Amino acid sequence: MPHQNDALRQNDDDGHSSEPASVPVARVPPEILCDIFGYFTSRDSLDEYRELANLRKADLLRLARVCSHWHTLVMGTPALWSEIEVTSSYWSWKSQTRCIRALKACLDRSVEHPLALRLNLGGTDSNLLRPLIKNLADHSERWQCLSLSIEPNKAELLRLVKGKLGTLQELSLQFVYGNYDVDIQDRIDIFENAPKLRHVLLYSLPNRHFLRLPLKQLSSFTFQDNGTKGFLDVMRNLSAPGATFKFQHTWPRNALCQFPLALTTSGISAFIVELASASIPQRLVELLGAVLDSLIFTNLHTLDVLRKGPGFPPTFWPVDQFEALARRSAFQNTLRSLDLLAVCITQDELLRSLAALGSLESLSIADHPIIRSQQCALLTDALLSQLTWSPDGADSHSRAHLVPRLNRLHCDALFRFTPQVYRDFIASRIAAGAGGAPFENSLFRMRDASSEVADRVIGELKPMVRERTLRLEYSSET
C-alpha cells in the first residue's frame, strides 16, 4: 500500500509515544526485560521494506513506545543495538540514504558496546557497498563477531578495516557469486592481523586461492569444503593448545580433489568430520578413508564422525585407514573420545578399531535400522561379551583389557541384546573404575526398538543407579 513505506516515521526512529502508558511493567527486573527485548532486535529481511525496518530495529522501537520505563531501557541499553544485520541486495539507490541513516542511528545507540555483525553483501553494486562499509569500518575497533558474505572480487572494499580489528573474536566468511577465477590471493589478507580472533568458519573457495588468517592463534576452525584441499593447510597450521578442527564436506558431487591427498601432520586436539553431502555410503567411506589416510596427529584427544541432514544414510567405516592412522598418531596414548554414531560399523571393525585405543574414555556407537535392505544391529550379546571387562583376562570369550579406561558409553540402540548381558557389561566397567567416578551410560531407544526389552534393561540397571555407581540417561525416539 502507498503508506506502507512511511509507516515508520520519526516517532518510530526515536521510540517516543505521545502518551506513555502507565502499567505495572516496571515491576519486572530490568535485566530480564532487556533479555526479552533482545529477541526483537533482528528479523529476516525479505524485501526492501523489511530490510529498512530491520536496520531501524522497528520492533524494538515499538516496544519503547509502550511506556516511559520501557523507553528508557530500550534507548539506554547499548547491547540491544549492538547486533546489526545487513542484506545489501535489498538496498537500492532510492533507499540508500534511509538505510545509511538507520545504520548510523543503530551504531550511535550501541555506544561503545562490542558489535556482532551479519553482513550479507553479495549481489550488490560496489558503489552501493562503499558508504555502507565506510560507516561500519568507522567502528571496526568494536567488531567482536563478524559473519560476512561477499563476492570475492569485492573483498578489497574491506581494506578499510585491515589492522583495525583488535577486538574481533569470531569470523564466519563466505564468498558468493562473482568471478571465482580472479586472482584474489593478495586481497584477502584483511583478517591476518586480528590478535583476539579465536573462532573461524570458512566456506571454502572452489579454486586454488585461500584466505590469510592468524591460524596459529585459533581455538576452533570450521572448514566447509567446496571441493578443495585447502583444509590440509589449515590443519597443518592450527597449533593453539586444545584447538578443534571441523571439516564439513558439502560438495554435492563429492569431488574432494584428487586422491590420494598429501600426508599432513597436525597438532589439533579435536577433529570433527561432518559428511553433509547426500551421497551413497560407499562413496562417503572412500572420502573418509582418503581424509584419514592424509593425516598424522601429534596429540589428538577427540575424533567425531557426523552426518548432517535428516534421513541421510550413515557412512561405512574405513577400518584399514583408521588402524593405520592410529599407529601413525599413537592413538594408544592420546585418543580419549570417539563418536561413531553416524557410522555403520561391524562388530569386527569396531573391535579392531578399539584394540588400538588404550586411552579411550568415551565411546558413542549406534545400531542402524536399515542398511543394504537389512537390519544392522551392532549392539548384540556377542559384542557386549567381547567388551565386558575382566581384571585377569580369564574369560576367553572377552577381550579382557580392551579400552580399560572407558567410563562413558552412548548408544543409539535397537535393543537386540539380552538385558542381563548388558547389565553384566555395565557392572564390569564399573568394577574397572575401581571406586572412582560413576560410569556414565546414555541409552537412546530407536523407533524400531522393543520398548519392552528397553524397560527390562533399565530395570536391570536401576540398582547401580541407586548405588550411585552408574549415571544413566535414557530417552526414546518419538
Automatic annotation (TrEMBL):
Residues 22-84 form the F-box domain. Residues 1-23 are annotated as: Disordered. This is F-box domain-containing protein. The lineage of its organism: Eukaryota, Fungi, Dikarya, Basidiomycota, Agaricomycotina.
